[in-house]
Amino acid sequence: MQQKIDYEIKMREGTARLLAASKHPSQLLEAAKNLLTSNTRIIAYMAELQRRKTAQVLGQNIDNEGTQLPCKAKLNMSDLRIPLMWKDSDHFKNKGDHRRYAVFCLVKIGTEIFDTSLITCVDRNMTDLSFDDVIAFDNIPHDFECILEIYCNKLHEDLTMASTPKKLKKKVTDLSESVGRSVGKRLSGLHDSDIMGNMVLGPKFELVATGTLSLQDVDDVVRTFDLKLEELSDGTTCELPLFGHYCCRLAALPHCLVQPVVTGYLSLHEDDDLSKWKRYWCVLKNLQLSCWSAPDDVEVTAPLVTVPVTKNTQICEADPRIIDRSHTFHVKTLSERFMSETTLAADNKDQMNMWWDGLQQHLLDQAFWKHACEYIMDVRRAPSNRKSVIMGRKTSLYDDTPLAEPTRLSVELKGDDDKLSEMLHRLMGEAKEIRSGSIKSTSSSSSGSLRSTSSS
C-alpha cells in the first residue's frame, strides 16, 4: 500500500506540472481528469492504510487465516452507456442553448479505481454517452460493491483557474495525520502551497451522479440501472441533462470455474463389484470432478470420467459395513433430470482431508457466488492502450435497450438467501470433525435448488 501511495503521488505531481504547462483545451481536460483520478486513488489508499493501522492497534486480525472463505473472482464492466434527456427544442428543433460538456467516469471497488476515456464536446446532438472501455478487476470478493461515479465539466472558451477543492484538501489533511509519520511526511506535498496551486489550474470536474452495483447485478447481458444525481459544490444540480439511468454489462468469473480447487489421485469404484477400483488423476474445477489416467493427459485429452459437483451435490462418508476400504466417501448429485452417485477413495487420511475440504470449498463458492457460479461468463480483457477521442453515438440507446427489464434474477434470488445460512451451517459443521479424524455420516450439501440463470 505504501508503494501504491508513493506511485500515485509521483503521478499526481507530474500531472500537476503538465496541467500548468498545457495550453491546448484537450490537453487541459485530459490532465485535469488524470489529476482527479490520482487524487481519488491517494485518498482511497490512505483510508485503507488508516483502517489497517487502526485494526493493528486494536489487536484485530484482518488476515482471516485458518477460516474457510469463498473464492474470489474476475470482474469487468463493459458496454457502459448513459442516456441524456435534452429538451425537444434543443435536440429535435435544433434550437435553445449551445451547452457543451466533457464527461468521464470512475469505476471503484475498494481501493481499485479505474477511469474511463474522456468524452468531449457533449452537446444536444448526442442522445447518449457511449464508453468503449472494458474495466477489468481481479481478486474481487463476493460481497463487493462496485461504484460508478460520473464527472462532468462544462466547457468554456476560457479555461482558467478553478475554485480550490476544499473537501478534497480537508479529507487528505485528516487522513495524512492518522496513517503514520513516514507516510504523513511523504504526503506533506499535499499541503505544499506550490503543488496545491497546480491542483486548481485548468478545468474543474464535478461529481454529478453515482451508481452502485453488487453481485445481484451480475449478468452476461447488458442491463439497466438507476443513477443517483448528486448536488454540486455550490448546492445546485448539474446542467448535464442525465436521464437518471445507465446501461452496462457487469460480468463475473469466480476463480473456482477456471482454477483447480484441488488436484490429486483418487480411486473410483466401478460397476457393482465392490472389489473393482480404478485409480485416476482428478481435478476439481468448474462444477465437476474430472478424471484422467495421468497428470500429463490433462492438457491433451478430454477427461475419461466426470462427476458433477453442483449446489445439488451431497458429500458423505461411505458406510464401513458395506465398503471395507478406508478413506472412502460418496458424491451424490440430485437434479430434476437425473441422479448420480459416485464412490471415491483417497490414498490416506491427509489426502482424505484435502479432498473433503476441497469439495466443501467448491460448494461454499457456489453458495456465495450464486448465479454467477453456474456457468463461465465471457470476461473480457481490458485494452492495453487507450486514447481519448471525441465519441459519437453509433446507434441510439433507446433502440438497443429492451422495453421490459428482465426480472428473473431478482425473483429467483429471493429464496436463495434464505437457504444460504442452512447450507453454510452444514458445510462448516464438519470441518473440525474431519480434521480430528471422526467424520460423521452427514451430508454437507446445499438444500434446495437454484434454477439456472443463463442469459436470455
Could you characterize what this model shows?
- With 456 residues, the protein is of the alpha+beta class.
- It has ten helices and 18 strands.
- β2 and β3 form a beta hairpin.
- The relative contact order is 0.13.
Helix and strand layout, with pairings?
Layout: H1 2-21, H2 25-57, E1 73-83, H3 88-91, E2 101-109, E3 112-115, E4 119-122, E5 128-131, E6 135-140, E7 146-154, H4 166-176, H5 181-186, H6 193-199, E8 206-213, E9 223-226, E10 228-229, E11 245-254, E12 262-269, E13 277-285, E14 288-292, E15 305-308, E16 313-317, E17 328-334, E18 339-345, H7 349-369, H8 397-400, H9 408-429, H10 431-436
Antiparallel strand pairs: 1-5, 1-6, 1-11, 2-3, 2-4, 2-7, 7-8, 8-10, 9-11, 12-13, 12-18, 13-14, 14-15, 16-17, 17-18
Could you list some keywords that capture this structure?
single chain; alpha+beta; Immunoglobulin-like; PH-domain like; seven-stranded antiparallel β-sheet; six-stranded antiparallel β-sheet; 10 helices; 25% strand; elongated
Structural class based on helices, strands and sheet pairing:
alpha+beta
Task: Tell me the β content.
Answer: 25-35%
Give the helix proportion (percent range): 25-40%
Query: Main β-sheet, in a few words?
Result: 7 strands, antiparallel
Low-confidence stretches: 157-165, 190-199, 387-394, 407-411, 438-456
N-to-C CA distance: 41 Å
Counting structural domains, the number is 3
Please name the CATH topology of the largest domain: Immunoglobulin-like
CATH homolog superfamily of the largest domain: C2 domain
